[in-house]
Amino acid sequence: MITIYTDGACSGNPGIGGWGVVILENNKDEICLNGGNDNTTNNRMELTAAIEALKYFEGKKDITLITDSKYVKDGIQSWIQNWKKNGWKTAAKKPVKNKELWIDLDELIVRHNITWEWVKGHAGNTHNEKADYLARRYIEEM
Question: Are the CB atoms for 45 and 18 separated by under 8 Å?
């Protein structure tokens, strides 16, 4: 079983953004990933963290992906089906923001068995705090 914590951060929105991932796999050492973009939004970084985490793995895996972003969790579990049926339009008939990232994430989730969980951000969860640190570290290094 693999547990993944993801987080995104942005300094300004839009602004310099970072994403962070902490991967816990059985009794192995944790794997930390991060990156970012000079001109992005917080939601884009939250999505990118989940995408990069899932791209890390070859072959089908059982994954629990934990995010502090309701945007990511609700989007992938609830909203995306209607977006696809409605030609990538929201219920208000507006284009879905970050469509290309949602498409990337949608393509990646079929490769794995994923359980999505939400955790409150900045509430002392060790691995969520580390994912946040990794995301912010990218911003600070820019």
Answer: yes
